[in-house]
């Protein structure tokens, strides 16, 4: 894909970029004095950094590589990912965000485990942590693999070596700077990837010709359905809605940023504006994939490489180099957000309740050690499990199955009891895991089993079980 001289230039540029990010973490580390500094960016994040960190977390390597490949292979129907996502964003922004922010502000919350413990008792932390670690360690491991893939394709580095290098570099930068470093690095990376995707989108349209030419090319290949936004089954739309979209309501990285904002207005405006940008960027990547097939007329055998083929087709090498760094920025900006979300769960919901310490220095140390624990688990997953994307999707399904009903019902309805919340979490999580292990009997996705069961158990125990209402 790249000749030896291009590989050398790419390798040097990637090294310089990593040194830049590590230097930022070292600099920011000097300003981190407390547990809140590390896990919540001191709760003082202003509007533009908040917008860009939301964008950077939402638009990762899976967006650039996965959505573009989906557009190329499956067509415009994949825009339903973004339609369902936008619906979820609207619900969160207008109906959930204020309640989440005020609760977090009042109780100085760090994780969703703090909320479930307040609402359903300390025992609720356990299923909450299990749900999140399953998803976030898989997502972090997937980013190690994504970095390794970039290094493999650009400089020919062995995949195993690339995974280990990606793990080491991401662990060091996250260990040093915590969420504060993540936010300020996202200012740089979010700006880069936003501009990069928009430029690529318009350049691809320019080279592809008008829509009538696109339609003629699709027709000549007998693939007119690829241009149809309804080229997707209702079942696929439902799964996107229940997993990727509904997961937005219980994403720990989203809740942490809502609490990290300096005030409610900043949280609301930052989230709303950033999600409009993120969803638009995701939609553009699907368009680019479709246009690559019927506009640029690229014949790509290895479809995971659509992004690389597109940028090499429309840009000279110096701009290809820039677009590779933008891809790397997209991967890293998502990875460190998943990293800190997972490590916060360990520090805040496992270690802190058991050591019962309010010492800021000690809890800061535990937070950094938690980063190392997440690194080890994620590295093992990355090295041992080839289907990390499937594991990530499964992980989000488990989280939604176990947590969505207790969290959403609990935010707005006082009747669900502590026992009802705990049973709903365990029944939803457990049934979804079992259904996954059984291999999706009757062709039903685990989310279609776990989420309804969680809701049913929450309601049954609330109405017919012992009354032990929480105070939240």
Automatic annotation (TrEMBL):
It holds the Pfam family SSF. Keywords: Membrane, Transmembrane, Transmembrane helix, Transport. Gene3D superfamilies: Sodium/glucose cotransporter. The chain crosses the membrane at residues 6-27, 47-68, 80-97, 129-151, 157-176, 188-209, 229-250, 271-294, 314-342, 363-385, 391-412, 419-438, 444-465. Signal peptide: none annotated. It comes from the Bacteria. It is a multi-pass membrane protein. One of its GO terms (molecular function) is transmembrane transporter activity. Belongs to the sodium:solute symporter (SSF) (TC 2.A.21) family. This is Sodium:solute symporter family protein. It comes from Staphylococcus equorum.
């Amino acid at each position: 894909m790249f000749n030896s001289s291009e590989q050398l230039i790419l390798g040097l540029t990637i090294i310089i970029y990593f040194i830049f990010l590590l230097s930022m973490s070292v600099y920011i580390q000097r300003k981190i004095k407390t547990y809140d500094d590390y896990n919540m960016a001191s709760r003082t994040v202003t509007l533009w950094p908040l917008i860009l960190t939301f964008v950077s977390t939402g638009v990762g390597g899976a967006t650039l590589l996965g959505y573009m490949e989906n557009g190329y292979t499956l067509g415009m129907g994949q825009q339903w990912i973004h339609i369902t996502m936008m619906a979820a964003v609207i619900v969160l922004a207008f109906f959930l965000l204020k309640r989440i922010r005020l609760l977090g502000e009042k109780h100085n919350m760090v994780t969703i485990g703090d909320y479930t413990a307040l609402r359903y008792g300390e025992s609720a932390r356990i299923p909450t942590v299990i749900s999140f670690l399953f998803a976030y360690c898989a997502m972090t491991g997937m980013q190690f693999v994504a970095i390794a893939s970039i290094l493999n394709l650009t400089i020919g580095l062995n995949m195993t070596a690339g995974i280990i290098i990606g793990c080491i570099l991401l662990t060091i930068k996250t260990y040093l700077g915590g969420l504060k470093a993540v936010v300020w690095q996202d200012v740089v990376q979010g700006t880069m990837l936003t501009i990069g995707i928009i430029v690529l989108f318009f350049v691809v349209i320019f080279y592809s010709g008008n829509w009538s030419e696109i339609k003629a090319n699709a027709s000549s290949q007998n693939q007119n359905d690829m241009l149809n936004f309804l080229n997707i089954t209702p079942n696929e739309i439902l799964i996107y809605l229940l997993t990727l979209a509904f997961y937005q309501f219980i994403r720990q990285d989203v809740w942490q940023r809502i609490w990290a904002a300096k005030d409610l207005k900043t949280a609301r405006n930052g989230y709303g504006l950033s999600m409009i940008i993120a969803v638009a960027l995701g939609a553009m990547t699907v368009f680019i994939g479709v246009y690559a097939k019927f506009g640029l007329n690229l014949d790509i055998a290895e479809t995971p490489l659509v992004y690389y083929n597109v940028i090499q087709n429309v840009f000279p090498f110096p701009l290809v180099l820039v677009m590779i760094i933008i891809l790397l920025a997209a991967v890293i900006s998502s990875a460190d957000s998943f990293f800190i979300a997972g490590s916060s769960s360990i520090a805040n919901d496992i270690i802190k309740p058991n050591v019962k310490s309010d010492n800021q220095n000690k809890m800061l140390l535990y937070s950094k050690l938690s980063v190392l624990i997440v690194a080890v688990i994620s590295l093992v997953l990355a090295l041992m499990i080839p289907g990390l994307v499937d594991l990530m999707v499964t992980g989000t399904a488990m989280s939604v199955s176990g947590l969505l009903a207790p969290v959403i019902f609990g935010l707005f309805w006082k009747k669900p009891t502590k026992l009802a919340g705990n049973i709903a979490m365990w029944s939803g999580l457990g049934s979804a895991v079992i259904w996954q292990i059984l291999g999706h009997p009757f062709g039903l996705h685990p989310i279609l089993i776990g989420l309804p069961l969680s809701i049913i158990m929450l309601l049954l125990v609330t109405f017919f079980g012992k009354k032990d209402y929480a105070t939240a």
